[in-house]
Amino acid sequence: MSLEKTRLRLGIVPLIDAAPLVAAKERGFFAMQGLEVEISREASWANIRDKVALGVLDGAHMLATMPLSASLGLGAIREKMVAAMGLNTGGNAITLSNALWERMAEADPAAMTRRPVTARALKTVIEEDRRQGRPPMTFAVVYPVSPHMLELRYWMASAGIDTERDLRLVVVPPPQMVAQLSAGNIDGYCVGEPWNSLAVSLGLGRVAITSRELWAGRVEKVFGVTESWARTHPQTHKAVLKALIQAACWCDENRGELAEILAQPAYVNAPAEVVRASLLGRFRYEFGGPEEDIPDFLLFHRHGANFPWRSQALWFLRQMARWRQLPPGVDMGRTMEEAYRPDLYRMAALELGLAVPTTDSKTEGTHAGLWTLTQASAPLEMGPDLFFDGSVFDPAAASQTSLPPGEEAAGA
């Protein structure tokens, strides 16, 4: 069948996980599907949300939470959006200023010598500041309803920090994080690469924990369009998905060449060596520290990285409810089913001859190593999916209207 539209404008935010869109254009995967695509580098996630909602962009690189939050109107615009594929897993980290790190090391040396670093020492520092009458510290995330916000709060709450009362949370666009940390305007942040590695390479901060350590195998970015665009452009949408799946496969296998492409000013605009190190999982947690290999720190296709798992969408929604970001009475099951569309992914991937999951959800947090998903059109090799605190999330057992013990309040 012919495509409803062949000339498209797709948005990205300058991050390494925009790679499938960039590679699809630069390596000709869009052209192979009969598409002429312009990549628009956007300054913030709010720009992405608004321009997709208003039709200025046909689709975009999006936060995995954005189709959910935009559909619910958690922001300036309410517009139903859908995610039919993930663009990557992993790639985020929590970075702290050197000054805060040193205070934490002094407050609780034992807690700071183990990896991944917990927020236990941070809680001690916060309590000392309160006793001394100091103002709360400030931490930045990239968007109010983002995986980064949920990751940062989850990490802090595990140590008993009340993220509503004990600190300030602000929104800073990803490319501005390093400058804000350098200026002393924030004490730490959660952002995608390369903006953690760049802070470390400049000697401005240290990485406490990566998303691979916090929750391995979680979708980080998705390709998103409005529900109305997907409905009126089904063949074009499928062609875009096929190009992005092919590009994601290429990205996993050609990381050196990918680094040179992404580093260009039109895309990420960062030193190629920093981009390359992130893509290869060669991570430095502190300036001058040893380079450590983090297996599968950032995946674009392998281990089911492109599949839009509804179990992960439900986890996002439950965390949003935990932090009082959802209005009362939201039907989480219906929201995740309308926003996350594994059926559309299957159609595109099967046409490419790829194996696909035959289930929309899976239990999260039970695999420390490689495992095989048998609920699939052919057995699929999957990767680790552990939470750093040992939690297990079973979507089949999870209530869609209530929260489990320990998650009822924002300070839980």
Structure description:
By secondary structure, the protein is of the alpha/beta class. It has 2 domains: 196 residues, Periplasmic binding protein-like II (D-Maltodextrin-Binding Protein, domain 2), CATH 3.40.190.10; 123 residues, D-Maltodextrin-Binding Protein, domain 2, CATH 3.40.190.10. The protein is built from 17 helices and 15 strands. A 6-stranded mixed beta sheet has the order 2-1-3-10-4-13, sandwiched between helices. Helix 1 packs across helix 12, helix 13 packs antiparallel against helix 14 and helix 15 crosses helix 16. 53% of the residues are buried.
Which labels suit this protein?
412 residues; disordered C terminus; globular; 2 domains; five-stranded mixed sheet; alpha/beta; D-Maltodextrin-Binding Protein, domain 2; 37% helix
Number of strands: 15
- Oligomer category: single chain
- Examine the secondary-structure arrangement and name the CATH architecture of the largest domain: 3-Layer(aba) Sandwich
**Shape, please?**
globular
At CATH level 3, the topology of the largest domain is D-Maltodextrin-Binding Protein, domain 2
- Output mean pLDDT: 94
